[in-house]
Amino acid sequence: MELPKLRIGDLVAKVPIIQGGMAVKVSTAPLAAAVAKEGGIGLIAGSGLTVKEIKEEIKRARELSTGIIGVNIMVAINEFKDLVNASISEGIDLIVAGAGFSRDLFSLGQESDVEIVPIVSSVKLAKISERLGASAIVVEGKEAGGHLGTDQPMKSLIDKIVDVVEIPVIAAGGIINGQDIAEVLEMGADGVQMGSRFVASEECEVEDEFKELYMNATPEDGVVIDSPVGLPGRVLRNEFLNKVEDDELDTGKSCNYLCLKKCSRRFCIMKSLLEAQGGDMANGLVFAGEKAYQLNEILPVKEIFENLIKEAKEYLGGNTKDD
Fold it and tell me: DSSP letter string over 83-105?
């Protein structure tokens, strides 16, 4: 029996997997398109891009795949609304939004027939999202990479939320293999969002040094820091993180990005994320999920999907939801 399809509004993904929209320039068009081509939902990370750049990424993804393509944009950035409008103008299929909550986003989605999927980490926000017109919600636990909205485990949140909303619930945080997928589907989730597994793909456009940090990571290398955004953030230990912990940075004092609505200026997070994407581990911050250390090989997206589906089916033993 096949895995259940994931229905988000009028969109139907053949495989219930959303690839996380990892900023800055980690989740770009080739990765999103490859995931969409395999029947999942591919996300382009909009945070840190200009309006021109996000339009170009969406066009590039459309040239590579006819599947479902979305964007993930942080509510915390100043250019949030401009990037949302630019994505809508390019005919994006859905918008995923985290690191904050925007009520205006739902109105924009309704006006443009674009599916809106907020990232939530509480029962309260799950209910509010449904009431405001969300097409689905991503329920993200403390195990996720990047900025975190909770200190609660993903499964405890899923257990509380699946019974209080009727819209699709997508589990995120700590999902790295097919067994993880199967377990949350059995709990009542409609799909999953996975980030770290797709960093370790051939289509991910980060430099080799970034991927090597994942390949060489140990459980102890995963660290939660206080991000300048005002949220905790899960990262991997590298030379830059040591500088952060030793308070040796002053990049935020001369930051020209002015990218965040709220920023402590302890260091420039956008600059550090761009440096990481380019392979500079001395000056770059690397986000990663709690289970990133379990990854040990870089594969094509097609093979990743084949493995995930096979593992999930084996664990479920045929007990999947009907199409």
Answer: HHHHHHHTT-SEEEEESS--SHH
